[in-house]
Design a protein that fits this description.
Number of domains: 2
InterPro entries: Sig_transdc_resp-reg_C-effctor, Tscrpt_reg_LuxR_C, WH-like_DNA-bd_sf
Low-confidence stretches: 1-15, 275-284
Strand order of the largest sheet: 2-1-5-4-3
Radius of gyration: 23 Å
Strand content: 5-15%
Helix content: 40-55%
Number of strands: 5
CATH architecture of the largest domain: 2-Layer Sandwich
Protein name: Transcriptional regulator, LuxR family
GO molecular function, one term: DNA binding
Number of helices: 15
Pfam families: GerE
Keywords: DNA-binding, Transcription, Transcription regulation
Length: 284
Amino acid sequence: MRLRDQAITRKSEANEADLPGEIIKLYEAEADLISLPEVLFAGVGRLIDADVVTYSEFHHASGEFRSLLSIEDDPSRRAEAMAAFARHMNSHDFWRCHPAFFGERALRESDFFGEEEFATLPIAREVFLPSRARRIMSIVMQNEDYVLTISGHRVIGRAAFSDRQRDLLEAYRAHVLRSYRQACDRTLASMTPTDRLRIAFPELTPRQLEVASWVARGKSNEDIATILDVGIETIKAHVKAIHAKIGADGRLAIAVMAHTVPPFTRMPPLWRIGEKVWGGHPPV
C-alpha cells in the first residue's frame, strides 16, 4: 500500500471511530442488565467496525458460559457452535477468556495465530469459519465470581482489526465495566423481594416463593393461610422448607434476605434473569 493510501485509511478510521462519543452514548443510555447488551452491540460495532458483536458470561468455576449475539441466527447452528466452542476453548488462553491472561488489554486472534495456522484450528473449523466469522477481538472483565466478555467479529475476507481499533476497544473497556456494574445496580433497585429470592434461590418452588413474599411483608402464618386459602400446617411446612433452602433461621431472617440478598452471586445474571427478557437474543 502506498503512503498516500495509508494516510487516507488512517484518516477514514479516525472519522469513523468516535471514542468520546461512544462513551457518552454508553452512559446516557442508563441501561439495566436487560438493555445493556443492545447498547454494547451498537457501540462496540461502531467503535471497531465489527460485523457481529457477542456478549458472554463465563463461570470458570463450573466451566460453563452463556452468549448473546448482535444478529439473529439459526438456533440449532448456534447450539452446535457453542458445543464445539466448549470442546475446544481450553486449547488456548485466548479462547478461555480468563481475566488473568487478558488483564486490561484488548486481544485479537491475529496476535496469536497466523493465517494458515488459524485455518487449521479445530475451534476455527467447527465454530467460526462455518459461520463466516474470521476476525476476533475481545475484552474480558471480572465481576463477582464470573467473567463478562465482549467480542467483535469480522467476516471472511475482511482485514484484521488494526492496532488503533485495538487501542480504542482497550480504552472503552473501563467504561464498559463501569456501565455494567451500574446496570447491575439499576436492575437490583427495580427488583421486588420475590424477584431477589427467585433468582438467588432457584430451588424454591413457586408456592414457597409466594409464602416467602408474604413473610417478607410481615404476615403471620395464619394470615398467609387465609390469603392462600390453605391449612395452617401447609404454611408451616412451606416456611420450614424455605428456612432450609435459603439458610434462614427465622421469619425475620427470611424478610431481611428477601430485601437484601444479592441475587447474582452464585451464577451470572444472564443465566438468572431468564430468556424472555433478552428478546431476539436468547442465551445459549
